[in-house]
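The aim of this short unit is practical: by the end, you should be able to scan a pair of folded records and say something sensible about each. We start with the first protein, listed as its amino acid sequence and then its structure tokens.
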Amino acid sequence: MKIVFLLPAAGVSGGLFVCYRHAHFLAARGHDVTMAFIADAGGLGVHAYPNFTLPVRSLADLAASGERFDAVVSGWWECYFEMFRIAADRYLHFVQGDDRESLRAQHGGSFADEPFVDLAFTNPRVGYLAVARWLKARLEGDADVAVAYTPNGVDLACFRADVNPLEPRGVRPRILIEGAQNLVFKRIELAFRVARRIPDAEIWYVSSDLPSRQISHAHRRFAQVPLGDMPAIYGSCDILLKLSVVEGFFGPPLEMMACGGTAVVSRVQGHDEYVIDGHNALTVPLDDEEAAVAAVRRVIADPGLRHTLARNGLETAARYGWERQCPKFEAALLELLGRLPVWGRGDRAAQVALAELRVRAARVAPSSRRHPGRLSLVPRLIRGVRRRWPTFPRKTSVNEFERSVPMPPPDGRRRSEFLGPIVFVGQPEYFRAAYFDGVNHGPHFEFPISSADPAARLRGLVDFVSERGIRSCIVFRPEWLATVPGLVERLQAAGVRVIGYSTEPIPTTGCGKYHPDLARRLESLRRALPLPLDLLVHYDPVSEGLLRQLGFDRLICHPLPVSQSLFYPEDVPPEFDACFLGRSTPHREHLLGLLKCQTGIVHVAHGLIDEQARALMNRSRVVLNIHCEPYPNFETRVVQALRCGRPLVSEPLTGAALAPAVDYEVATTPEAFLAAVQAAVRSGPSAPARGRQADLSVFALAVLLDRIAAACGCRVDDRSRAAA
């Protein structure tokens, strides 16, 4: 896929470095990635980011070339307007903060470009990538736009506790202040007032700009520091003092934690993405100088607290490594591209005209404050453009009910100490046998959905769990949760755990080139990567390494349960030589060919409900298992056959739950399948399964629930365990 990131200039800032990181990851994943800059007066070379290897071009060059891309990603609100000069199929805006708030804070209120800036966050034809949950909620609340959550991260190979400091930490407390002095909302002067009130403190200051006046109170000053030099500065300081009043997902506190220090930060919106007051940092109210002074003094006076905050900070940073976060960005980007329409030349022309209108408006009123008379036409001009350029109906919209539900922060969730009652969400024709014992005999519930329109059904899940006192949702095919934006967060806000159960085969780590069917299923599962699931369960442990590599960090692997109440031996005479349940594919038909010619086999290609499947297995001398495509897998039907006490002939199975040549007969060719079935027919009418050694108790629902409860830090109540 051809992707271009459009940024203001090749400067030094945390936001630019985040874009560089994601762009390099996408390039490593095989995408054709270009970095473009609007301003090229200072050159196009990127020198402040280590090991930068991407091709770089100017906006003017790309616009003139007419070269077409699959997607353009803008990294700043001004880049949003300019990105439409580049020919592309789709356009996305990477939102690392609400620039409307930043500009209002910078100008002390209304500002000249305010009507235009708002347009950059409300275009229903553009996809939005938000680095914080509060940003995602705000964007979706302001307009009917497509938004995906992709949190920022930290380079754990660069920012680490054993980094060589610029100067070792000493007896004097060393306070680090970070932020551009010319950005009022960073509150740099407030931070200096606080730091100067700390007795015997040494103050270091890092700025991404070149301050117009020297800050005499700083013992050491650093400007436009390359990313690779920042760890040594963090490693030299004890406390980062960050008192901004506007941020998106601010990176410096996380980087400070990764380097073994701690931070005192303001309770700016979005701080709770990873900062927990008293756990890994201390937080203070906005613009509260006295509270900030007290917090810094407390950290300095209490070595035990400082050690605890630093230790917990290291653990926090370890969860936000880029190796986990970058795959989430790719998954979010691909998910949005699948929902957005392709842009035509006329659509782009309308946006370019709007960009030129913005430039003309700025010339009319060059001052930072809006002149009520001279700029009064701007909102009317914008409305005129919108009327002439209608929006499109999104495939997945956020209805009014979803917008009205509040979105509290994750650390505000109320969680029961028990896992259940549980609601199992999925297609009954595929998963009923997995949860039947808990629903039929216990306190749990079924919430059936279908592949026809899962979103329409899933929108009723919040009411369903509220009415029944549900404590946990186990959702088969968790990627379908992405069809209803904000659903997971709303369930969690109600105190409900959301657990995804991945049941589709995907590639394994190091398996080389993927089979196209595996690649398709993996691409579908990746839609669940941006979702803030409490836990992901994958049915096959052979793919665990790949899932963790992709960024699924809250993960366990456990096979699908098979109900003992639905599958058991029956004393009935065999009527068929063999049976196979599964849709017809070329691979299966190849292996079944000789059997269909020379034995009495029943092939049910359209599926059977569980009781019917049990009856057919018990009426057959042999149960067959053949993979859908020519790659190894582990299908639930093999456990169903063994629970019925029937001999099993199968292609090799993944994992170690069943032993080949012991628990089942292995066959890989049409001739081998034929020979195995004929041998079973010759052995008599009631040939038992061969010397089985497998412990089928692992396939009980109770074992699964115990593992999930342990992973979620809760318990399975006695009633649930007895029922399962």
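Turning to the second protein, read its sequence before its tokens, just as you did above.
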Amino acid sequence: MTGISIKRRMKNALLVAIAILIMLTLKVAWIQFVQGEELKTLAYKQQSLDRKINPKRGTIYDTTGENILAVSSTVETVTINPTNIAKEDKEKVTKAFCDIFELDYDTTFKKVNKKSSIETIIKKQEKEKTDKLRIWMQENNITQGINIDEDTKRYYPYNNLASHIIGFTGSDNQGLDGVEAKYNEILSGTQGKITRVTDAKGKEIGDGNEQYEDAIDGDSLVLTIDMNIQSIVEKYAQEACIDNVCTDGANIVVMDPNNGDILAMVTYPTYNLNEPYKINNEELLANWETLTATQRNTALQAMWRNKAIADTYEPGSTFKLVTSSAALEEKVVTETDKEGEFACTGSIEIAGTRIKCWRYYRPHGAESLRQALMNSCNPVFIGLGQKIGVEKYYDYLEKFGFLNKTGVDLPGEAKGIFLEESKVGPVELATISFGQRFEVTPLQMVTAVSAIANGGNLVQPRVVRQIIDSKTGEKQDIEPIIKQKVISEETSKKVLSMMGSVVAEGTGKNAQVKGYELGGKTGTSEDGVNTNKYVTSFIGVATINDPKLVILIALYNPTGEGGHQGGGVAAPIASQILGEVLPYMELKKDKEGEIEEIETVTMPNIRGMNIKEAKKVLKELNLSLEINDVEDEKEIDNENTYIKEQTPKPGIKINSGSNVFVEI
């Protein structure tokens, strides 16, 4: 071999060596500077075992700050490091887990034999059970691979109480609905962790000392909800739905009109917060196993849905309060008691369409505005709406908060459903003016009437009034929010006075409570078009001289013998609730004994009787007979005209002095 060949080979070898060295240098640089952080993280994960420490979720109190509505208690979670459990111990460890915690053997055995660094065996166990595991570990000399760590579990001491407001949490303590979801960041706190160093194979290094990073507990909340008022309202919501066979449930909302504090909010039926995935419908529960996953999820979502804020309804005649307020504020009408200012002839023609009064067969005749509200006379409010005009009326819809969400601090809020202003003609304005052919949420209606009650201010409703710092105990008050001025104090007083007459003498007299001067308005509306379903409602203010609360009762599709009229069905429920709530709130009575206690009588069966016989029977009970769809009763032969149907139905308790409506 020549010298030149040897030199060439040495040169080539040197070049190859240099190339390899450059490649290795570049690789090291890539690993060091580009992949360094990622590999460092992977090494940390491989060489350390991090177990999370869940913080205690903040407590939720009612408005007193004493009654606990939701609380987290200490439980324990069991995890394992499979690589630290000796091979010969894996089977008996699996059996111990299954015996103590009633687990599936095959599933547990797979976890124990995995080559992962950590596996969760079971979460949120009472200490009684985990103590059994501790004793077993001691008896069997198992010192490594099994971890028992403190955890928290959410409890709701009153089960169903305020379920749609409070909401619930998931298995990871994450808020899933209601206040729990809306204020999750405040309630949840910050996780801590336990760190244990291991080798590359997952074996513990050294004496197995652990490093603790403490969890920070979540802050607590004080709600505006009064547990006692909420309990009273829930009791009567349930009774109302059972007695009146309300197939689609009910909403009742009680709010302080002065600061927006929601004192009670009920969507019936409620559900158990400690078992949020157990359906509250007996029929569905019986067939639960036959339902598809989609059907189950739909049923649960419906059960959790807070209809008071998430669903809309047609308010009916309760909305005449808004029309009255706008008309007085705009000076379309100035006096509430001017005799003969309005006249009801039984109907009114608007743009070629004739719209009837509910009592078209016997018109109200000459009326003042007060009398029109007491009689709930549609033509009067249609006329007021036409005088106000579309543009100005929509200004008031905006001011009263119907075109936007209220801003309540709960998830899933909806807003009112109205035609676009540009599409509203004379007929559409007419129907809006007496509360039909649009929809609002129950909370929107309560918020609007609260503006009437408090002197004219639109207040933002709320369910949380205070936050308590978990570390310092410091209390942070959440200030009420007044959005805007809607009407003047003068208009407010006039409308409140008229509402007082509705309860004292008009369609809302069944809402009376002895000793208190209450105001209100009844409503009956269709639940959808051509559904043959109705919403019966009553909205009230207590008291009209010093308003401290606004209450709305809305019953969906009452099909009982009591009928579906707001004055006959919803108003009495308001009387029952307020009869307990007002004394509890220690509200001063207006004039002791001025409002006489109303005598009730049992509705007799007058079907099949002629008109003369029926009038005689009813007169003895201080009841009056009204014949539907008859314009002139003088033309009726009372002895030869027989009653086919009656409302209320026989056996129903009604107030003495009430009207009985019959069909012939």
